[in-house]
Amino acid sequence: MNAFATYPSLKDRAVLVSGGGSGIGASIVEHFAGQGARVAFVDIDEIASMALVDRMAAAGLPAPAFKRCDVRDVAAYQATIAELAGRLGPFTVLVNNAARDDRHLIADVTPDFWDERIAVNLRHQYFAIQAVVPGMKAAGGGSIVNFSSVSYHAMAPRLSVYEAAKAAVVGMTRGLARDLGGDGIRLNIVTPGWIMTQRQIDLWLTPEGEADLMKVQCLKEKLYPPDIARMVLWLAADDSRLVTAQNFVVDGGRM
After folding, report:
1. Which candidate in 7, 126, 162, 224 is catalytic?
2. Which pairing describes strands 65-68 and 247-250: parallel, antiparallel, or unpaired?
């Protein structure tokens, strides 16, 4: 059995994760709690989120703070961040994970659809950063992890608006890393490959798709949420203290 790293610098650190109720986000919440961090998360799916809280309690992990919030509503989201920071203390780790990769055809994309997809896949990241930066500056620094996607590198079909948002995450992160580096705030990107969340398995994984994936990956294993969560832990911890403005691709060597 593999033994993975423990990061003493994460103990008691206040961490905020968006989209933490299921999939990759839920694994990130669990992994930070396992490091002894004080974890808060937001999600729109209250049922899945409360199930995660109960599952963590049954496993003996510290209970995370959960609040239902739609990250597309910037004012409500920033108010929620302030409320959770009031409970846990200023966040010195922010993980901008929330996203949706719904397929779409070019002809069906309207301005409203475009705006909503950008809101759920890009815009909330910026305004969450805006909300936590004052606390990070007061604390002497922090770590922000933004999520992109391998899909725009792979030119996946029927995902053009999603891919536009996820490509923009890279430029946004690098620009903000320059702006905030003088305050000791680090910003990095995690770019997951095809991660076997339950949603991906239920909606898109087929025997043919899995066979094609194994052909293009160097490492002939499917990736799962903990593979991403462990990268996020390292980026949040002091072990990566001089790493910023970088993009970490976790895809089994697909790109």
Report:
1. 162
2. unpaired
Confirm whether 175 is domain-assigned. Answer: yes
CATH label of the domain that carries residue 173:
3.40.50.720
- The answer as to whether 1 is a domain residue is no
| pLDDT tens digits for range 191-250 | 999 999 898 889 878 999 999 999 999 999 999 999 999 999 999 999 999 999 999 999
pLDDT for 73-130, tens place per residue? 999 999 999 999 999 999 999 999 999 999 999 999 999 999 999 999 999 999 999 9
Q: Which domain holds residue 235?
A: 11-197+224-250
Active site residue 152: no
Number of independent structural domains in the chain: 1
Residue 77 CA: distances (Å) to CA of 101, 125, 132, 217: 21, 11, 12, 37
- Is 210 a domain residue? no
CA separation, residue 169 to residues 172, 187, 234 (Å): 5, 11, 20
